[in-house]
Fold these 4 entries.
Entry 1:
Amino acid sequence: MTGHAAAARLLDSWQDNAAAWTAAVRSGAIESRRLATDAAVLDAVLERQPGKVLDLGCGEGWLVRALAERGVAAVGVDGAAPLVEAAAQAGGRFVRLSYAELIAAPERCGEGFDLVAANFALLEEEIGPLLAALHGIMSADGWLVVQTLHPLAAGPPYEDGWRTENFSGFGEGTWAPMPWYFRTLGSWLGVLREAGFALQVLREPVHPQEARPLSLLMGARAI
């Protein structure tokens, strides 16, 4: 599968999986989120005390709602219409835009964001243009918080490349396989730097009982 075809299938998979994903997130069926990763990204965002946040790849909108409960204005953006519909029904401000549409017209999300959060949402191969577009709608010295699967949790080989998520253990429902692009830590740092971001924070949330890493969390400042 070519990179372009994989990226198209990636977006299609979120259309197919919207109902199952919404149910899994809202029921707490995903152990890693329940035990560590949801709290990790929420804490990382709140530490920066942002006035305005963009939740990139917001899914069913849980982070926008969690921030609103804490008095933080947030906008969610996602390319899958069923997810945006589910998010809006639960409350909050959401915009349906594919990443290609966001790159072409980032101001459609709004402007002056103090922080952009990408929680398991940067899954395509070519994310440089997207990050560069986000840079243009952020406030001076704005922050980008990225959480992604930890390389040790992803397993070998430790090299950039497309993989497939089958959503095993993600709860009930019918799931369509999702292609996603794995990148090494060095690759992450390179793409952030090229898009105009400087890494400031690097964390590895772990399973509280098993002490194994679940995710890689990066905080980078726009420069």
Note: The domain at 3-222 is CATH 3.40.50.150 (Rossmann fold).
Entry 2:
Amino acid sequence: MPLCVVTGAAGALGSDVARALISRGDDVALVDRAEARARLDALVKELGARATAHTDLSDAAARGPVELAALVAGGWAGGNDEAAFHAMMESNVATVHAAFRALLPGMVARKRGAVVVVGSRNVERPWTGAGAAAYTASKSAAVAMAQATAAEVLEHGVRINAVLPSTMDTPANRASMPKADFSRWVTTQSAAGVIAFLLSEAARDVSGAAIPLYGRA
């Protein structure tokens, strides 16, 4: 079975991506920060022997040849001051760049692989990021890097795509926006299904795409 790396695996979306991949028979290396180790271990206990927990991407990659990767790790912060800018670039751009450097050479050498980057609706509708300009810029940079890199590796049998969710229906978002109509948001299960599709043979002809996942938000 193919080995898939999921970064940000302890979060709401990352854990549902892992569940979707495990349910179809993939082996999954779950990656998140050291402070999320307890949640990673709980997820491994839920998913079983096909899943392993890691707090270092290189450790996860050493588990075996990585064919698939869902780069879910990222963050959100409002504003555009210096602290917010550097935090968002580190969370949303540097993490993708590091994953590309760690994983793509092996995929290119084996001439097989697929990667999905999680962007944001703000990439295509930046005005919806008013009040969070640094976050919007960082997600735009991550998706642009994904699409440019997709063109570089396409002839080597490697595909890279992005998904652009609007507001995700997560416990954190419900807590921060308790008066919102949650039914209009994108469920993590729905987004995970799209990511799993893009990491499947059924999507073998899709690369360089940025798929809108807007729900009704």
Note: Helices lie at 12-23, 37-47, 57-61, 82-110, 133-153, 171-176, 188-198.
Entry 3:
Amino acid sequence: MLKALTLVDVQIANYPFTTISANQAVGYVITECACKRLGAKCNPQNSKCVDGKRWIPVKLLDVAGLVPGAHAGKGLGNQFLDDLRQADGLIHVLDCSGLTDAEGKQRPADNPWDPDENIKVLESEVDEWLFGIIQKNVEKVENLARMKKTPIARLLAEKLSGLGITEDDIKNAMKQSDISSREFATILRRESKPIIIAANKIDLPSAQLNFEKIKERHDHVIPTSAESELALREAAEHGLVKYTPGNRNFGIISDKINEKQMEALDFIQKNVLGKYGSTGIQNALNALVFDMLQYIVVYPVASINKLCDTKGNVLPDAHLVRKGTTLKEFAYKVHSDMADKFIGGLNLEKKKVGAEYELHDGDVIEILFSR
């Protein structure tokens, strides 16, 4: 999955704990570039534009799988859960074929595993881990809240800030459950660490059957074939095909493709792209970032008239920010000096907008500040 998203050189093997130390790489979410609707020729600096699509970098961390009892230290559980602290969201790469069990061990074709059990393991282990951390802090927080007359959610957020959990996450969870319950930990996990399920190996018949069952039981399930995506990405890298991740088609651009390679490409077109509209790999990352985490794309410029930075680069930077981010908050993200000397902003209509203006997806904005 990681190699299919990034083409980094990582170890790939079909046995438990192939991944021991986390693999870190940069992937890209892909969206329509503002240059397309504005009729401008862009010159990206912090991202890239390919055929009118803006590729925006995101940090990816491929970590060791979880086994039952991971929250108590079994397998590489402690390491996985420690890595989890850094995550905004998770893509659960699920072997949808049923040919491996919850511990990653091979299963015979006549006695397959129910992949739904793997989903339960991941969710349960993360819930138990969060529950244990909350239990260690909840009594102290409740006492402190009474003494200082401070909201519990604020104090608990301070304790859990290292897990990427916000005060809003805690408030939302408190509306639905008691803070000392396991249910609270489950709700908090859903709020702060949303999971999208990549139902992988969808090119296999058994995976296709299991996928239909899984999508009936769970939300946010995307059929994927990492092997197919990797084959297409590598073929594109070597100039054999023209392919954009997430597309339902590819074009052959070389006469050097041998018979075996052509058979593989035909298989991918028929059994993956033709059936599911894509390999699902790029869709999974995009869906996590844009749909579940609610990120939008904003383009800051130094001149709204010329759509460029101070060096003349047109639409140079594309930033991912959470939906609801204000212009003043965005100014801090771009540069602290801009925020400290903030005056306002100009949108594409050349209208002035203030500090509390909520940014929209695709906004191109000039931040005004005293120099």
Note: The first strand starts at residue 23 and ends at 32.
Entry 4:
Amino acid sequence: MDASDLRIFEAVARLGGISRAAEALHTVQSNVTARIRQLEQELGTPLFRRLPRGVEPTGAGRRLLPYARRVAHLLEEARRATRDDGTPQGPLVIGALETSAALRLSRPLAAYVAAYPAVDLTLRTGTTCELMQQVLEDRLEGAFVCGPIAHPELLAVTVFREELALLTAPSVGSLDALAAAAGGVRIVVLRAGCSYRQRLEEILARRGIAAPRILEFGTVEAIFGCVAANLGITLLPRALIGPVWQDGRVALHALPPHEAMVDTVFIRRRDSHQSSALAAFLAMLRPAQDMPLAAE
């Protein structure tokens, strides 16, 4: 079993067919079939089962797939590390919470793009759960997520502190009034894995409001509209909700510091090479105090 075998195996699994993999790899179908059979014989187990249209991995194939992807990534990372002479250049793919992207990253990103035109920067937004998984799978070089993060394969350092506030419709006079709300309390989040959902549930539980119903929306703007219409409540950074609060569309309820303050941390894999492009970006964000992650 070598890297080439695993590359062919990954292509077949990803594309769901021998012919499609052969086309993507610029080879003939018979070569892909022969390499897959050779790999199955070496491992002593079938890796694919045939379907009416294409193939799908067996249990053994599904277990092998993460290793095949990891080997491919390591080889690509090795090539990038070898070529990295300290000058920021090439692709840089990072992730961020939608709130962090809106509040904290627009100016640094603009400054970075202007300072390092040879870097092809991509920013992907998602929830903390989604971004953590993408970093672990090497689909992101790093990501800004809601802390704290304690994972053995990840390095994490605090880069921002946010003050959170509870948002309700203007008709909700106080948090105590929520407990008596007819039909129960609904909380509004971006989607499954929303960074602030668990924190909001804990805040409500302390006030005797347990098991709230969940509404999911795709954008922060949709959440504002939902809350303004009294369809639910939400928890967001206070700096993000200033305009809609000042317009009177929603009511803002301040929280005590131990509930309101939350860290945004930057995470990356412990065993990954930190590119010069990423190091330069983190240096632009680094506050007065030292930022050990950028120097790892």
Note: The CA atoms of residues 22 and 29 lie 5 Å apart.
